[in-house]
């Protein structure tokens, strides 16, 4: 069903048509997930090993293999992101440990990132829930209330060179490895997993709701 056909539907019919289309993307396909993992992890290991072996013949030769290895590492980061959302593989415990193993390669604390990212999605756009997994954004009134030094600091913070250069390096090299502020006393992996499993159940509930609405 194309967009023109959808436009011809009125009210609830249009909504039901969209629900039918979107429901196809709420299903886990384990075979496809394993395929994507294999075509990413195997080439990464190959280029990683090739780069290490090439170092014996010179750094420039090793650099040739490092570039594609970095590309596949980035793709592993994307798969770990999907694991964090519970949208990869479909079996929660398998998703959990797949994400943790990939996190060893991406040098990121899996449970911390998953919780921070979940809070980011839950509070995105809510000015009263800022501070976790997001980019600091001030309202006009908050900006005007800053001192001169504060305004300069905020402008520097929001500068593209900082946001996409220095800030990104700080985030991936330090912040995600030493998450100060979230390493509170008594926090365990179980605390993170409880929240993540609730998120996974909520995803399942939304899928069931879509199926119910389609059947109505």
Structure description:
By secondary structure, the chain is mainly alpha-helical. The protein has one domain (25-193). Helices cover 72% and strands 0% of the residues. It has ten helices and no strands. The protein has helices spanning 3-8, 12-23, 30-54, 59-84, 92-106, 110-123, 140-144, 148-157, 160-175, 189-215. Helix 3 (30-54) runs antiparallel to helix 4 (59-84) and helix 6 (110-123) crosses helix 10 (189-215). The two termini are 20 Å apart. Mean pLDDT is 77; it is low at 1-9 and 185-216.
Largest sheet: none
Number of strands: 0
Counting helices, strands and paired strands, the structural category is mainly alpha
Fraction of helical residues: over 70%
> What Rg, in angstroms, do the CA atoms define?
22 Å
The ordered H/E elements are HHHHHHHHHH
Total count of domains: 1
Q: Report, as a whole number of angstroms, the end-to-end distance.
A: 20 Å
Per DSSP, the total helix count is: 10
**Shape category:** globular
- Strand proportion: under 5%
- What average pLDDT do the residues reach? 77
Poorly predicted sequence stretches spanning 5 or more consecutive residues = 1-9, 185-216
């Amino acid at each position: 069903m194309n967009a023109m056909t959808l436009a011809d539907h009125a009210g609830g019919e249009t909504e039901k048509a969209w629900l039918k289309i979107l429901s196809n993307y709420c299903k886990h396909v384990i075979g496809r997930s394993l395929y994507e993992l294999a075509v990413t992890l195997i080439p990464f290991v190959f280029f990683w090993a090739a780069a290490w072996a090439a170092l014996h013949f010179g750094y420039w030769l090793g650099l040739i293999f490092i570039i594609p290895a970095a590309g596949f590492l980035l793709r592993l980061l994307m798969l770990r992101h999907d694991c964090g959302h519970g949208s990869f593989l479909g079996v929660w415990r398998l998703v959990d440990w797949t994400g943790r193993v990939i996190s060893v390669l991406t040098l990121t604390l899996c449970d911390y990132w998953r919780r921070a990212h979940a809070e980011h999605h839950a509070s995105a756009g809510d000015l009263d829930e800022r501070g976790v997994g997001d980019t600091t954004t001030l309202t006009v009134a908050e900006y005007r209330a800053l001192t001169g030094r504060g305004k300069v600091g905020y402008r520097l913070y929001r500068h593209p060179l900082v946001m996409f250069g220095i800030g990104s390096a700080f985030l991936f090299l330090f912040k995600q490895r030493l998450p100060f502020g979230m390493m509170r006393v008594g926090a365990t992996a179980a605390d993170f997993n409880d929240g993540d499993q609730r998120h996974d159940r909520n995803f399942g509930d939304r899928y069931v709701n879509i199926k119910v609405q389609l059947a109505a």
